[in-house]
Design brief:
- The structure is a single chain.
- By secondary structure, this protein is of the alpha+beta class.
- The protein folds into 2 domains: 8-74, no CATH class; 79-224, no CATH class.
- The chain is 20% helix and 27% strand.
- It has helices at 35-42, 51-72, 166-174, 200-207; strands spanning 82-94, 103-105, 111-113, 119-127, 130-139, 149-151, 154-156, 163-164, 179-189, 192-196.
- A 4-stranded antiparallel sheet has the order 2-1-9-10.
- A hairpin with a 2-residue loop joins strand 4 (119-127) and strand 5 (130-139).
- Helix 1 (35-42) packs antiparallel against helix 2 (51-72).
- It binds zinc ion.
- Zinc ion binds next to loops.
């Protein structure tokens, strides 16, 4: 098949993304490649057999991704030079201990990365009765704090260690009193996976909920609209 050329020139796209499959936190790329990059790919080869058709499909799929990103990028903030690949979450619940009553996180693990030489985890601390999260990353040694999950469906309050059992959590969920909290952001910077605490912009975007411009299928679970939870419950 002769060389294929696009009939619709690529529109200007956000900065180039890209992700590596390096650990269990690897996720499909959220951000499109740059349009110029895609067009260069398309026009750089002579195609044989179905290769041209495959390139066409790939090219137009990239156009759909570019336009979706133009519509949604405001809901996915990022820092300069980084391409976020995941916004990580934990469910939250109110501690049943009347002397505490704080918002605790139902995280199943605090680990973010167990890659050798690049260990990373979420470090929870309690300040003025509130759980404050930091991210420890790029460590050669050390380990994440113990998970608050202490049994099958049972969590310990991060603030006071009181148990939140399955029955209590189910009743809180039924009453609509469970919440979600962004815990950290995974991003690619210069081809390297990094983990960082969420910025104010990340938290604000997260609290807005799913963008109204998303197709209905993307609203199926509130934890997944921003790439879902990885490593945390
Ligand atoms: Zn508590």
């Amino acid at each position: 098949m002769a060389q294929q050329k696009p009939t619709d020139r690529p529109r200007k796209a956000p900065t180039c993304g890209g992700s590596r499959s390096t650990d269990r936190h690897s996720l499909p790329r959220l951000r499109p490649r740059s349009a110029s990059h895609a067009a260069k790919d398309l026009n750089s080869y002579t195609y044989h057999g179905y290769a041209g058709l495959a390139r066409d499909v790939s090219f137009y799929a990239e156009q759909v991704l570019n336009r979706a990103w133009e519509a949604l990028s405001a809901d996915y903030p990022s820092l300069p030079g980084e391409a976020p690949v995941a916004w990580l979450w934990a469910r939250t619940a109110t501690c049943p201990n009347p002397a505490c009553g704080g918002e605790t996180l139902l995280a199943t693990t605090w680990w973010l990365s167990k890659k050798v030489g690049e260990l990373a985890w979420i470090q929870p601390q309690v300040e003025d009765g509130r759980v404050v999260l930091d991210v420890v990353a790029g460590q050669k040694q050390g380990e994440a704090p113990p998970s608050p999950k202490v049994g099958d469906g049972v969590f310990a309050c991060v603030i006071c260690a009181s148990p939140l059992d399955g029955k209590y959590l189910r009743s809180e969920a039924s009453a609509g009193r469970m919440g979600l909290r962004i815990t950290s952001v995974a991003a690619d910077v210069d081809g390297k996976r990094i983990y960082r605490p969420p910025t104010k912009a990340d938290s604000v975007a997260a609290e807005k909920g799913p963008p109204k411009t998303l197709p209905p299928a993307c609203h199926s679970t509130p934890t997944r609209w921003a790439c879902g939870s990885v490593g945390t419950a």
